[in-house]
Amino acid sequence: MTSEQSEILARAGIADATDVSRYGSGHINETYKVETASGTRYILQRVNTSIFDERILESNVVRVTEFLKSKGVKSLEVVAYESPWRIFKFLEGYSSRDVVEEPRQACDVGRAFAKFQNDLADFPPPRLEEIIPKFHDTPNRLRQLDEAIARDVKGRLASVSEELRFVDTWRERAGRIVGLMASGDIPERVTHNDTKINNVMIDAKGESVVIDLDTTMPGSALFDFGDMVRTATAAAAEDEADLSKVFSKREYFEALARGYLGGAKFLNEAERANLVFSGALATFEVGIRFLADFLAGDTYFHTAYADHNLVRARNQFQMVKSLEAQTAEYEKIVKELQ
What is the pTM of this model? Predict the structure, then answer.
Protein backbone atom coordinates (compact mmCIF):
# COMPACT_ATOMS: atom_id res chain seq x y z
CA MET A 1 0.00 0.00 0.00
CA THR A 2 1.15 3.56 -0.60
CA SER A 3 1.89 6.03 2.16
CA GLU A 4 -1.14 8.08 1.06
CA GLN A 5 -3.42 5.08 1.36
CA SER A 6 -1.96 4.20 4.77
CA GLU A 7 -2.57 7.73 6.03
CA ILE A 8 -6.14 7.83 4.69
CA LEU A 9 -6.93 4.53 6.39
CA ALA A 10 -5.32 5.61 9.67
CA ARG A 11 -7.35 8.82 9.77
CA ALA A 12 -10.47 6.68 9.31
CA GLY A 13 -9.49 4.64 12.37
CA ILE A 14 -8.13 1.69 10.37
CA ALA A 15 -4.61 1.34 11.70
CA ASP A 16 -4.12 -2.41 11.22
CA ALA A 17 -4.28 -2.65 7.41
CA THR A 18 -2.05 -5.47 6.15
CA ASP A 19 -2.70 -5.35 2.42
CA VAL A 20 -4.27 -3.04 -0.18
CA SER A 21 -4.86 -4.51 -3.66
CA ARG A 22 -6.75 -3.52 -6.80
CA TYR A 23 -10.28 -4.87 -6.84
CA GLY A 24 -13.18 -5.22 -9.31
CA SER A 25 -13.61 -4.35 -12.97
CA GLY A 26 -14.68 -0.69 -12.78
CA HIS A 27 -13.14 1.81 -15.18
CA ILE A 28 -14.09 5.16 -13.62
CA ASN A 29 -12.77 5.11 -10.05
CA GLU A 30 -9.70 3.36 -8.63
CA THR A 31 -10.97 0.59 -6.36
CA TYR A 32 -8.96 -1.37 -3.78
CA LYS A 33 -9.71 -4.12 -1.26
CA VAL A 34 -8.22 -3.57 2.18
CA GLU A 35 -7.26 -6.50 4.40
CA THR A 36 -6.65 -5.94 8.10
CA ALA A 37 -5.06 -7.85 10.97
CA SER A 38 -8.43 -8.01 12.74
CA GLY A 39 -10.04 -9.67 9.70
CA THR A 40 -12.41 -6.79 8.93
CA ARG A 41 -12.23 -5.85 5.27
CA TYR A 42 -12.94 -2.59 3.48
CA ILE A 43 -13.26 -1.09 0.02
CA LEU A 44 -11.04 1.94 -0.58
CA GLN A 45 -11.81 4.08 -3.63
CA ARG A 46 -10.17 7.06 -5.24
CA VAL A 47 -12.98 8.96 -6.95
CA ASN A 48 -12.43 10.23 -10.48
CA THR A 49 -13.03 13.92 -9.81
CA SER A 50 -12.61 14.79 -13.49
CA ILE A 51 -16.00 13.10 -14.02
CA PHE A 52 -17.76 13.60 -10.69
CA ASP A 53 -18.28 16.67 -8.54
CA GLU A 54 -17.04 15.27 -5.24
CA ARG A 55 -19.30 17.47 -3.10
CA ILE A 56 -22.45 16.34 -4.93
CA LEU A 57 -21.27 12.75 -5.04
CA GLU A 58 -20.57 12.54 -1.32
CA SER A 59 -23.85 14.22 -0.42
CA ASN A 60 -25.94 11.94 -2.64
CA VAL A 61 -24.20 8.69 -1.64
CA VAL A 62 -24.29 9.45 2.09
CA ARG A 63 -27.94 10.55 2.00
CA VAL A 64 -29.04 7.47 0.05
CA THR A 65 -27.11 4.97 2.18
CA GLU A 66 -28.20 6.59 5.45
CA PHE A 67 -31.84 6.60 4.33
CA LEU A 68 -31.71 2.92 3.39
CA LYS A 69 -30.00 2.13 6.69
CA SER A 70 -32.79 3.95 8.57
CA LYS A 71 -35.29 1.61 6.91
CA GLY A 72 -33.28 -1.49 7.79
CA VAL A 73 -32.36 -2.07 4.15
CA LYS A 74 -28.95 -3.62 3.47
CA SER A 75 -26.79 -1.22 1.47
CA LEU A 76 -23.26 0.08 1.15
CA GLU A 77 -21.92 1.27 4.49
CA VAL A 78 -19.87 4.45 4.29
CA VAL A 79 -16.95 4.47 6.74
CA ALA A 80 -15.23 7.69 5.73
CA TYR A 81 -14.99 10.34 3.02
CA GLU A 82 -11.84 12.37 2.51
CA SER A 83 -11.77 13.76 -1.01
CA PRO A 84 -10.84 12.24 -3.38
CA TRP A 85 -10.87 9.07 -1.24
CA ARG A 86 -13.73 7.17 0.37
CA ILE A 87 -14.01 3.95 2.36
CA PHE A 88 -16.86 1.42 2.51
CA LYS A 89 -17.31 -1.72 4.58
CA PHE A 90 -16.65 -4.79 2.45
CA LEU A 91 -19.87 -6.69 1.66
CA GLU A 92 -18.98 -10.06 3.15
CA GLY A 93 -20.76 -13.07 1.69
CA TYR A 94 -21.89 -11.25 -1.46
CA SER A 95 -20.63 -11.71 -5.00
CA SER A 96 -21.36 -10.28 -8.44
CA ARG A 97 -20.81 -11.20 -12.08
CA ASP A 98 -20.03 -9.18 -15.19
CA VAL A 99 -22.33 -10.84 -17.74
CA VAL A 100 -25.88 -12.21 -17.64
CA GLU A 101 -25.42 -15.84 -18.66
CA GLU A 102 -28.88 -17.31 -18.08
CA PRO A 103 -32.48 -16.06 -17.72
CA ARG A 104 -32.48 -16.58 -13.95
CA GLN A 105 -29.74 -13.97 -13.65
CA ALA A 106 -31.76 -11.52 -15.75
CA CYS A 107 -34.61 -12.05 -13.29
CA ASP A 108 -32.23 -11.35 -10.40
CA VAL A 109 -31.18 -8.06 -12.01
CA GLY A 110 -34.77 -6.94 -12.51
CA ARG A 111 -35.73 -7.89 -8.97
CA ALA A 112 -32.71 -6.15 -7.43
CA PHE A 113 -33.24 -2.81 -9.15
CA ALA A 114 -37.01 -2.90 -8.60
CA LYS A 115 -36.30 -3.33 -4.90
CA PHE A 116 -33.75 -0.52 -4.99
CA GLN A 117 -36.24 1.85 -6.63
CA ASN A 118 -39.04 0.70 -4.33
CA ASP A 119 -36.90 1.23 -1.21
CA LEU A 120 -36.19 4.79 -2.37
CA ALA A 121 -39.73 5.58 -3.53
CA ASP A 122 -40.40 7.58 -0.34
CA PHE A 123 -37.01 9.32 -0.25
CA PRO A 124 -37.56 12.61 1.60
CA PRO A 125 -36.77 16.16 0.46
CA PRO A 126 -34.58 17.88 -0.44
CA ARG A 127 -34.21 16.42 -3.91
CA LEU A 128 -30.92 14.68 -4.69
CA GLU A 129 -28.63 16.74 -6.90
CA GLU A 130 -27.96 15.75 -10.49
CA ILE A 131 -24.42 14.39 -10.56
CA ILE A 132 -24.54 14.40 -14.40
CA PRO A 133 -27.08 16.98 -15.61
CA LYS A 134 -29.29 15.94 -18.56
CA PHE A 135 -27.89 12.41 -18.40
CA HIS A 136 -31.01 10.84 -19.91
CA ASP A 137 -32.28 13.88 -21.82
CA THR A 138 -32.43 12.12 -25.20
CA PRO A 139 -33.27 15.28 -27.21
CA ASN A 140 -30.17 16.88 -25.71
CA ARG A 141 -28.13 13.83 -26.74
CA LEU A 142 -29.44 14.37 -30.27
CA ARG A 143 -28.36 18.00 -30.13
CA GLN A 144 -24.87 16.85 -29.13
CA LEU A 145 -24.86 14.47 -32.11
CA ASP A 146 -25.96 17.27 -34.42
CA GLU A 147 -23.13 19.46 -33.13
CA ALA A 148 -20.65 16.65 -33.83
CA ILE A 149 -22.12 16.29 -37.33
CA ALA A 150 -21.74 20.01 -37.98
CA ARG A 151 -18.13 20.05 -36.82
CA ASP A 152 -17.02 16.72 -38.33
CA VAL A 153 -13.59 17.32 -36.84
CA LYS A 154 -12.11 14.04 -38.11
CA GLY A 155 -13.73 14.01 -41.55
CA ARG A 156 -15.73 10.90 -40.68
CA LEU A 157 -19.20 12.10 -41.68
CA ALA A 158 -19.24 10.40 -45.08
CA SER A 159 -18.81 6.99 -43.44
CA VAL A 160 -21.96 7.21 -41.27
CA SER A 161 -24.70 8.12 -43.75
CA GLU A 162 -26.63 4.89 -43.12
CA GLU A 163 -26.45 5.37 -39.35
CA LEU A 164 -27.68 8.95 -39.64
CA ARG A 165 -30.65 7.84 -41.74
CA PHE A 166 -31.56 5.44 -38.94
CA VAL A 167 -31.21 8.22 -36.35
CA ASP A 168 -33.65 10.35 -38.36
CA THR A 169 -36.32 7.63 -38.08
CA TRP A 170 -36.16 8.04 -34.30
CA ARG A 171 -36.08 11.82 -33.93
CA GLU A 172 -39.81 12.26 -33.31
CA ARG A 173 -39.89 9.49 -30.70
CA ALA A 174 -36.68 10.39 -28.90
CA GLY A 175 -38.29 12.92 -26.57
CA ARG A 176 -41.24 10.82 -25.45
CA ILE A 177 -40.12 10.02 -21.91
CA VAL A 178 -38.64 13.47 -21.30
CA GLY A 179 -41.92 14.97 -22.55
CA LEU A 180 -44.05 12.74 -20.32
CA MET A 181 -41.93 13.75 -17.34
CA ALA A 182 -42.33 17.44 -18.22
CA SER A 183 -46.11 17.02 -18.39
CA GLY A 184 -46.19 15.18 -15.06
CA ASP A 185 -47.56 11.96 -16.54
CA ILE A 186 -44.35 10.17 -15.57
CA PRO A 187 -43.01 11.13 -12.12
CA GLU A 188 -39.43 11.90 -11.25
CA ARG A 189 -37.97 9.17 -9.05
CA VAL A 190 -34.65 8.34 -7.41
CA THR A 191 -32.92 6.18 -10.02
CA HIS A 192 -29.61 4.32 -10.27
CA ASN A 193 -28.67 5.08 -13.90
CA ASP A 194 -26.18 2.22 -14.31
CA THR A 195 -28.33 -0.89 -14.03
CA LYS A 196 -25.86 -3.56 -15.14
CA ILE A 197 -25.54 -6.96 -13.47
CA ASN A 198 -22.08 -6.11 -12.10
CA ASN A 199 -23.73 -3.51 -9.88
CA VAL A 200 -25.81 -6.17 -8.14
CA MET A 201 -24.27 -8.15 -5.27
CA ILE A 202 -26.09 -11.34 -4.24
CA ASP A 203 -25.55 -13.62 -1.24
CA ALA A 204 -26.13 -17.36 -0.88
CA LYS A 205 -29.77 -16.78 0.13
CA GLY A 206 -30.47 -14.74 -3.00
CA GLU A 207 -30.63 -11.42 -1.15
CA SER A 208 -29.30 -8.53 -3.23
CA VAL A 209 -27.49 -5.26 -2.57
CA VAL A 210 -27.21 -2.64 -5.30
CA ILE A 211 -23.78 -1.01 -5.41
CA ASP A 212 -22.01 1.77 -7.34
CA LEU A 213 -24.34 4.57 -6.30
CA ASP A 214 -22.31 7.29 -8.02
CA THR A 215 -24.97 8.04 -10.65
CA THR A 216 -27.92 7.72 -8.28
CA MET A 217 -29.94 10.89 -8.81
CA PRO A 218 -33.38 12.12 -9.91
CA GLY A 219 -34.64 10.55 -13.13
CA SER A 220 -37.17 8.21 -14.68
CA ALA A 221 -37.53 4.60 -13.58
CA LEU A 222 -38.03 3.81 -17.26
CA PHE A 223 -34.42 4.58 -18.16
CA ASP A 224 -33.25 2.22 -15.42
CA PHE A 225 -35.47 -0.53 -16.81
CA GLY A 226 -34.57 0.35 -20.39
CA ASP A 227 -30.86 0.01 -19.71
CA MET A 228 -31.50 -3.36 -18.08
CA VAL A 229 -33.21 -4.45 -21.30
CA ARG A 230 -30.25 -3.15 -23.30
CA THR A 231 -27.66 -5.05 -21.26
CA ALA A 232 -29.42 -8.06 -19.73
CA THR A 233 -31.21 -9.29 -22.87
CA ALA A 234 -28.38 -8.69 -25.37
CA ALA A 235 -27.10 -11.78 -27.17
CA ALA A 236 -23.70 -10.16 -27.80
CA ALA A 237 -21.32 -7.64 -26.30
CA GLU A 238 -21.96 -4.00 -27.19
CA ASP A 239 -18.90 -3.89 -29.44
CA GLU A 240 -19.63 -7.08 -31.40
CA ALA A 241 -18.96 -6.19 -35.04
CA ASP A 242 -20.89 -9.15 -36.54
CA LEU A 243 -24.41 -7.73 -36.47
CA SER A 244 -25.95 -11.14 -37.16
CA LYS A 245 -25.06 -11.94 -33.55
CA VAL A 246 -26.75 -8.82 -32.15
CA PHE A 247 -30.33 -9.22 -30.94
CA SER A 248 -32.49 -9.15 -27.83
CA LYS A 249 -33.22 -12.57 -26.34
CA ARG A 250 -36.94 -13.09 -25.66
CA GLU A 251 -36.54 -15.50 -22.75
CA TYR A 252 -34.15 -13.10 -21.04
CA PHE A 253 -36.59 -10.22 -21.50
CA GLU A 254 -39.38 -12.29 -20.01
CA ALA A 255 -37.23 -13.19 -16.99
CA LEU A 256 -36.08 -9.60 -16.55
CA ALA A 257 -39.63 -8.25 -16.74
CA ARG A 258 -40.86 -10.89 -14.30
CA GLY A 259 -38.22 -9.94 -11.76
CA TYR A 260 -38.76 -6.23 -12.20
CA LEU A 261 -42.55 -6.14 -12.25
CA GLY A 262 -42.68 -8.44 -9.25
CA GLY A 263 -41.17 -5.65 -7.14
CA ALA A 264 -41.89 -2.39 -8.97
CA LYS A 265 -45.30 -1.86 -7.43
CA PHE A 266 -44.82 1.91 -7.48
CA LEU A 267 -45.09 2.26 -11.27
CA ASN A 268 -48.02 4.30 -12.55
CA GLU A 269 -50.05 3.62 -15.70
CA ALA A 270 -47.91 5.77 -18.00
CA GLU A 271 -44.70 4.11 -16.79
CA ARG A 272 -46.11 0.64 -17.35
CA ALA A 273 -47.33 1.62 -20.81
CA ASN A 274 -43.81 2.66 -21.81
CA LEU A 275 -41.75 -0.16 -20.31
CA VAL A 276 -41.13 -1.95 -23.61
CA PHE A 277 -40.49 1.33 -25.46
CA SER A 278 -37.94 2.31 -22.82
CA GLY A 279 -35.68 -0.58 -23.80
CA ALA A 280 -35.43 0.59 -27.39
CA LEU A 281 -35.10 4.24 -26.37
CA ALA A 282 -32.33 3.61 -23.84
CA THR A 283 -30.46 1.56 -26.42
CA PHE A 284 -30.94 4.22 -29.09
CA GLU A 285 -29.63 6.86 -26.70
CA VAL A 286 -26.43 4.91 -26.05
CA GLY A 287 -26.05 4.39 -29.79
CA ILE A 288 -26.18 8.09 -30.58
CA ARG A 289 -23.70 8.77 -27.80
CA PHE A 290 -21.25 6.32 -29.40
CA LEU A 291 -21.89 7.85 -32.82
CA ALA A 292 -21.42 11.42 -31.58
CA ASP A 293 -18.16 10.44 -29.91
CA PHE A 294 -16.95 8.77 -33.11
CA LEU A 295 -17.62 11.96 -35.07
CA ALA A 296 -16.03 14.10 -32.34
CA GLY A 297 -12.80 12.12 -32.45
CA ASP A 298 -13.32 9.60 -29.64
CA THR A 299 -12.94 12.05 -26.77
CA TYR A 300 -15.25 10.44 -24.20
CA PHE A 301 -15.41 6.65 -24.50
CA HIS A 302 -12.18 4.65 -24.32
CA THR A 303 -11.47 2.98 -27.66
CA ALA A 304 -9.23 0.06 -28.60
CA TYR A 305 -9.08 0.77 -32.33
CA ALA A 306 -9.95 3.49 -34.86
CA ASP A 307 -13.60 2.58 -35.57
CA HIS A 308 -14.44 1.20 -32.13
CA ASN A 309 -17.14 3.77 -31.38
CA LEU A 310 -18.67 3.33 -34.84
CA VAL A 311 -18.82 -0.44 -34.31
CA ARG A 312 -20.52 0.19 -30.96
CA ALA A 313 -23.04 2.59 -32.52
CA ARG A 314 -23.93 0.13 -35.28
CA ASN A 315 -24.26 -2.61 -32.67
CA GLN A 316 -26.66 -0.57 -30.55
CA PHE A 317 -28.76 0.46 -33.55
CA GLN A 318 -29.04 -3.21 -34.55
CA MET A 319 -30.18 -3.98 -31.00
CA VAL A 320 -32.83 -1.24 -31.35
CA LYS A 321 -34.07 -2.88 -34.56
CA SER A 322 -34.32 -6.22 -32.77
CA LEU A 323 -36.30 -4.66 -29.93
CA GLU A 324 -38.59 -2.90 -32.41
CA ALA A 325 -39.24 -6.18 -34.25
CA GLN A 326 -40.24 -7.85 -30.97
CA THR A 327 -42.33 -4.99 -29.59
CA ALA A 328 -45.71 -6.73 -29.89
CA GLU A 329 -44.38 -9.90 -28.26
CA TYR A 330 -42.68 -7.98 -25.45
CA GLU A 331 -45.81 -5.89 -24.86
CA LYS A 332 -47.79 -9.12 -24.49
CA ILE A 333 -45.28 -10.42 -21.93
CA VAL A 334 -45.49 -7.22 -19.87
CA LYS A 335 -49.30 -7.21 -20.00
CA GLU A 336 -49.47 -10.82 -18.79
CA LEU A 337 -47.12 -10.06 -15.90
CA GLN A 338 -49.03 -7.04 -14.60
Answer: 0.94
